[in-house]
Amino acid sequence: MKTQAFGAPDHGAPRIGLVALAAAVALLAGCGDKKDKAASQTAAKVNKAEVTVHQINFVLQQQRGLRPEQADAASKQILERLIDQELALQKADDLKVDRDPRVVQQLEAAKREIIARAYLDKVGEAAAKPTPEEIKKYFDDKPALFKERRIYSIQEIGIEAKPEQVAVLRDQLTAAKNINEFVEYLKANDYKFSGNQAVRAAEQLPLQGLEAFAKMQDGQAILNQSPAGVQVVVLAGSRSQPVSEEQARPAIEQYLTNERKRKLIEDNVKALRAEAKIEYVGKFGEGAPGAAASASGAVPNNPPNNPSTNPSNTTAPPPAPAASGKLSATDISKGMGLK
Fold it and tell me: Where are the domains of the chain?
């Protein structure tokens, strides 16, 4: 069985954008006098407090992938959760829970996170949208993702092994006529291993390793070393399902825009650190991290949970929704490192 080197996973960029609460106000506009308008904002009364339509819409806007016809049912479910929340808040107020030092600390941490994220989102808003020429170039430069896109059936085997056993396993995998023969070798030699399988469209694989993976033939396997031993990925089968430039354009535009936002945020954080006076104290003064490492920490990376590159993943994810032939911005963003 032939083996082939495989690239590392592509790390992603943060999600950018604040929830526009003002949109909820527009949905609530109605007829009548001021008293009627005020009354229309109340969805439920909980003792002396109210749960408003504004609160429901705020939560509703954060539900990704919600279809219009699902909005009414989702709103009712959200209302029930908000009622439960209000009841808990009222009881917590009676017990003065908000004065608990741990709660105060959590509130302050949440406030810092929200304000800091709002600032970074504002920085990212300055990113320019890609031009049609830039979108076309990206499409042409990534044939494995678009013109030569494939749907991959993947089998993964995670094997517990010592470092000195890696070379032996690699040789055995190369010599095996098929994956079943290799598995029998593992059993005969008392290796502990686990396996799973999944269906993945090209855009759901790590972008950095996609080209190498696209060169694999059905039945071919790759072996990567992992912290616990080795990981073997077998391309059990694949089928061609290309995507046109018209289909891919929205996803490419979103990805390139988000990449520019990520770069703007990263550069801004580095500039802020360069201008600031930062002094590490006590045990933190020993081997203090560099500005570059800290700046990258301000923009979280969220690598996709992918069976072909994540050794810790032992549960097969559900089949890729993009296998229908359409390429959505959400699907392509997963493979490009966006969450």
Answer: 1-9+131-244+304-339, 22-119
